[in-house]
Amino acid sequence: MADATKAENPRPRKPLAHERLKAVLVYDPKTGKFFWTARTAHRIHIGDEAGGVNTSDGYRYIRIDGQLYAAHRLAIFYETGSWPLFETDHKNTSRDNNEFVNLREATRSQNAANTKRPITNTSGVKGVHWARNERKWVAAIKVNGRTKTLGYFIDIDKARLAYQRAAHVHFGEFARTE
Question: What is the full per-residue pLDDT of the chain (178 aa) written as tens digits?
Fold first, then answer.
């Protein structure tokens, strides 16, 4: 019987070392941009901005030694010397803005809290939708993957206020209510 680990991952990669990152790239925390300081491939030129923005998700990625890395995670690693334990949140929700002051470590729930109102939302208010059967507005919030109903309201502004209060209680600085 074949060894399952070898079949799943025939050539495991070593994680990127902090020294290696700093040997091939320089990061400007004020602009959030990385620039090459060493040629690691034929197409790379010293001084060029590293990576490119993925059109499907809007994040910037950089390939180092054959491995693809999200630039926002590299920025935290570059500045702190430690990989983010969870996710990396862009405070202003701009996925290509990797200025260090715009980045913070976040849980999945915190990261999801700092999102704009979904385009599928027809009420125009984040966390509020119309309950047709009840003929009222419903305020609801998702915390740790579970949806909590906050109440049914005749007035949409009261439903908005209920969502905003709950978001600040559950998510604090990560709460984005508009």
Answer: 444 444 444 455 678 999 999 999 999 999 999 999 999 888 999 999 999 999 999 999 999 999 999 999 999 999 999 999 999 999 999 999 999 999 999 998 899 899 988 889 999 999 999 999 999 999 999 988 899 999 999 999 999 999 999 999 999 999 998 8
Domain 17-106 has CATH 3.20.20.70: no
Q: Which two tokens stand for residue 64?
A: 């180092």
Residues 6+ away with beta carbon under 8 Å from 150: 127, 138, 139, 140, 141, 159, 162, 163, 166
Q: What would the CATH number be for the domain defined by 117-174?
A: 3.30.730.10
d(Cα 93, Cα 96) in Å, to the nearest integer?
Answer: 9
Which residues of the chain does CATH 3.90.75.20 include?
17-106
Domain with CATH 3.30.730.10 in the chain: 117-174
Please state the pTM of the whole predicted model: 0.79
